[in-house]
Structures are given as C-alpha cells and as structure tokens.
C-alpha cells in the first residue's frame, strides 16, 4: 500500500461514523461552538496580591497586583515565622541565596530561608528591614522581610512580567545622567522618574561630567534639556566629580536620608559616590572608546554609609523598562499633563487622536508642556 492509499484508508476509518449530512452539520456546529467558547473564555484569574504574598510570593505580574503609587509592595514576607528569638537587621547586599546584613552596628552574613531564596529578586532587596534567626553561634538565617514604605523596581530581563526589586525603604533616588560620554538620555531619566514616583521615592536629577562642556552653547543645550525637570519641581544638580562642582550641593540634599543612585552605565555613578564619600574607595571604570557606552563597574546593589550619608550603589543599565503600568494610567505619572487632562472631553482620553483633547491643545502652544508630551508619547508607545 503506497502513502496515498494509506492516507485514504486512515481518513475513511476516522470518518466511518459519519453516515449522513445532518451528522456532519452537527459535528461542524459543535466544532464552531468549541472554538467560540475558547475565544470567549476569560483567562484564569491570578490570585489576589494578598493571597499570593501570604503564600510567600511577591511576583507582581500585573498592574492590579503591583504596588500602588504609594509604594507598598505588600505585607510582611515570612509573617508566620515565630517572632521569638528573631533579631532585627538591615540588608546591605545580596548574593545567590545569601545576604549581608547589619545587626546592632555589626555586619553579618546570613543564608536566606527557602521561601526568600526561591524568590530572591522579587522578595528581598538592599535596604529591606529583615528578621534573622541565629541557628548556631555565627550562623544566621534571614527568615522575614518587613513591609516597605518605598521601593524601586524594574522588569526582570528574563521574565518581563516579574518585577526585580532594586532597592527598598529609600527616601530619595538620584538619577545620574552624563552630559557627555555617554550623551544625556532624557528618555532614560523620564523612565526612572516614573519608576521612582511609583515606588514612593523622591527623585533628584544629577547631570554629571559637566567639566566636559567646552562652550557656552554646550551649557545652554544642557540647561535646556534639564529645564522640564526643574519645571516639575524636581531638584536638578549639575556636578563634576573631576573638579568637585556641585558635590557639596548634592551632599546637602542627601544628608540624613537613604538614597539609591541609579543611571546608565558609564555616567560616573561610582566616581560621584567616591566624591560624595571619599572613604568608600569604589571601583571606577571608563567609557569604551569604540561606541561611547559605559562599562559595568558595579555588578550588584550595595548599601554604603560614610559620615552621615547612606547610599545604595546600583549596577549601571543600558535601558530601563517599566512593568505593570496600564496605558490609561500613564498620564497620572505626568502631573504636568494630568492637570490639563481634566479639561479633556473624555475621561479615558489617551491624548492621542481623541477629539477635544486639552493636553494636545496645550502642548501645541507651551514649549515645556510640548516636551513632556513628546516624552509621554514615547513611553506610551513602549507600553503597547
């Protein structure tokens, strides 16, 4: 039997139960009904954040399960752990399955509980207040992470639907952007502003390497690029770690606060931290000559303290994504646009092509609003 005959035989064997046109029509009807049900069937509802976190999960995969703009990622993790014998600590750094923790002014290293180790990037961060248990002299285990009052997170590169925590319980976030080498990237600043606002962290924009500005026109262009952030009421500081410009001003803004320092690779975060706190002796890298991109000198987040300053250094990034923000929520993170959105004809206006959009009208005549509107459109497009 050749392949054609074999195919025909198998077809008629499978179809031999069909004896009439009515039966064939009935089968077709049922098939179409099944397809329709598959399309209409709603996706399985994810557990509520409270249910998931009580089970030890803090994988904030949708805007509904994400923290609110108030910046509380969820209740205490490991809350069922008996409090007897627990010692309070502050996370200074993290490694695979382990954490460096400050306990009563001393630094200890502890293993993470199974619950925390399995969800390390989404369950514990530098700056977290934790509870430890001493299993035996000198051997510690982190078993509890207390509720946070603020946080900074980004999508996990391998799982964009999961938020990787960068820092916790910080008061301010310093967004470092070089004016040269690499060039100032407003889009990255804008994304950090949204992420910090979302986590309840006050932002500071720090323009670094101003010693590389050679002409008055260079300085004018940088001032123009930074003006929208000043208009928002965000502190803007121009610094040079090389010459010391602006270092005292920035140090004053960070006094008595816990700050997280973020930015693109190569913008000079480590040099800046070394200028702010000379006793830290951090590694400093250089920008690659071939493409002008930065090198990663900091490979993991860590908390440093020096003479009243408390700074969380973070690895540099090439890009910074946003997760869990619905398109309709985005305008709420642009306060300067949101105040005009109240005059839009439609409450759910996305400020694209909708008739009667007040945001577009104002953006067309006020330059500073127009710049922010262009930023809004870029971020909105990325959320699609």
List the helices and strands and how they pair.
Blueprint: H1 3-15, H2 21-40, H3 49-54, E1 87-95, E2 98-103, E3 106-112, H4 114-118, H5 120-123, E4 129-136, E5 139-145, E6 151-155, E7 163-168, E8 172-178, H6 186-198, E9 202-208, H7 216-231, E10 236-238, H8 247-254, E11 258-263, H9 269-276, E12 302-306, E13 309-313, H10 335-341, H11 358-363, H12 367-383
Parallel strand pairs: 3-5, 8-9, 8-11, 9-10, 11-13
Antiparallel strand pairs: 1-2, 1-4, 2-3, 4-5, 6-7, 12-13
In words, what does this structure look like?
The structure is a single chain. The chain is built from 12 helices and 13 strands. It is of the alpha/beta class and 384 residues long. A 6-stranded mixed sheet has the order 10-9-8-11-13-12, with helices on both faces. Strands 1-2-3-5-4 form a 5-stranded mixed barrel. Strands 6-7 form a two-stranded antiparallel sheet. About 14% of the residues have low confidence.
Distance between the termini: 54 Å
* Main β-sheet, spatial strand arrangement: 10-9-8-11-13-12
Give the overall pLDDT as a whole number. 79
- The parts where pLDDT drops under 50 for at least 5 residues are 10-19, 38-72, 287-296
Quaternary structure of the protein? single chain
**Can you count the beta strands?**
13
Helix count equals 12
Radius of gyration: 27 Å
Elements, N to C (H/E)? HHHEEEHHEEEEEHEHEHEHEEHHH
The secondary-structure class comes to alpha/beta
Strand content: 15-25%
């Amino acid at each position: 039997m050749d392949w054609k005959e074999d195919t025909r035989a198998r077809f008629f064997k499978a179809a031999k139960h069909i004896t009439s046109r009515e039966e064939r029509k009935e089968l077709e009807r049922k098939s179409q009904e099944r397809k329709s049900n598959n399309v209409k069937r709603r996706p399985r509802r994810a557990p509520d954040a409270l249910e998931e976190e009580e089970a030890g999960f803090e994988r904030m995969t949708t805007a509904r399960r994400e923290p609110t703009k108030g910046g509380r990622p969820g209740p205490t993790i490991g809350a069922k752990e008996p409090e007897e014998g627990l010692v309070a600590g502050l996370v200074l750094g993290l490694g695979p399955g382990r954490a460096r923790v400050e306990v009563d002014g001393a630094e200890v290293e502890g293993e993470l509980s199974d619950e925390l180790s399995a969800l390390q990037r989404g369950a514990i961060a530098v700056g977290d207040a934790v509870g430890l248990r001493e299993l035996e002299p000198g051997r510690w285990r982190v078993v509890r992470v207390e509720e946070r009052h603020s946080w900074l997170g980004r999508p996990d590169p391998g799982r964009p639907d999961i938020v990787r925590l960068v820092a916790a319980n910080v008061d301010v976030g310093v967004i470092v952007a070089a004016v040269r080498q690499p060039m100032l990237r407003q889009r990255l600043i804008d994304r950090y502003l949204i992420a910090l606002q979302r986590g309840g962290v006050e932002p500071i924009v720090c323009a670094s390497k101003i010693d590389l500005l050679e002409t008055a026109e260079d300085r004018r262009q940088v001032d123009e690029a930074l003006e929208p952030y000043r208009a928002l009421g965000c502190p803007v500081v121009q610094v040079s770690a090389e010459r010391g410009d602006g270092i005292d001003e920035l140090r004053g803004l960070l006094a008595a606060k816990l700050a997280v320092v973020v930015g693109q690779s190569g913008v000079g975060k480590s040099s800046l931290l070394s200028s702010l706190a000379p006793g830290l002796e951090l590694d400093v890298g250089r920008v690659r000559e071939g493409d002008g991109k930065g090198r990663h000198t900091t490979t993991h987040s860590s908390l440093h303290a020096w003479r009243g300053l408390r700074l969380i250094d973070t690895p540099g990034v090439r890009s910074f994504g946003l997760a869990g923000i619905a398109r309709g929520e985005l305008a709420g993170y642009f306060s300067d646009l949101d105040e005009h959105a109240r005059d839009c004809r439609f409450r759910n206006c996305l400020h694209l092509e909708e008739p009667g959009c007040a945001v577009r009208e104002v953006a067309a005549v006020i330059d500073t609003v127009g710049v922010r509107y262009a930023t809004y459109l870029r971020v909105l497009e990325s959320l699609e």
